[in-house]
What we know:
By secondary structure, the chain is α/β, with parallel strands linked by helices. The protein contains 9 helices and 10 strands. It has a domain at 7-92 and 166-244: P-loop containing nucleotide triphosphate hydrolases (Rossmann fold, 3-Layer(aba) Sandwich), CATH 3.40.50.300.
Amino acid sequence: MNEKPQAFIEVIDFHKSFEDKKVHQGVSFYVRKGECLGLIGGSGTGKSVLLRTLVGLEKPDKGQVIVDGTPIHGMNEAQLVDIRKKVAYAFQGGALFDSMTVYENLAYPLREHFNFSEKEVEAQIKAQLEEFGLAPGTEKLYPGSLSGGMQKRVGLARAMMIHPQVVLYDEPTAGLDPYNTKKIQESILKLKSKGMTSILVTHDMPTVYAVCDKVALLQNGRISEQYTIDTLKKEPSGAMTEFINGESA
């Protein structure tokens, strides 16, 4: 995998077990700069574990995890700070702080990682709300008063506050109605148009087709198949098509 000159993310021979259960048994894939990879697979196959590993929240039992040419699998928490500025994690459900307003949620990563004045923080939050199509006044609300779709959009906006180079999406459209699903797709495509590298974990194949460049199937502890979206549309076959059509787990 190291011969891929433009790879921004590389996972090489990744193994991970929890107690006696082997979840990953040699996962390997790469994502080039500016690409969006759709990562699909059945429940319990460890898709979210892979995302967490890319920000150092999980450690491989064996294998390599490389971000922007830097191996991160052996890093400690202090060393991971710079990686986490490059790689944003958009958690499933938004993962907002319920006790904070939207403003405070968006301000949190800026105050955590930078030394901006409060005026600069306010300006960046205003710009971010506009960027994600969130109406003026949204910043005064608490997460509990937002719809599920709004919470996910605010969660994505917060993830982008530190201007990362990679964003990891964990089921960004799960449980959303068609309107909010389209809004999330539009946000992903807008970021992609600016050169964002991304990985999308999802069961939502229409969103994969709408925003991804390629898709990989995680099955039996490995990537069993990987195709470009164009190839998958033109020549559907094999285990991935069976999975998409609900014929395999």
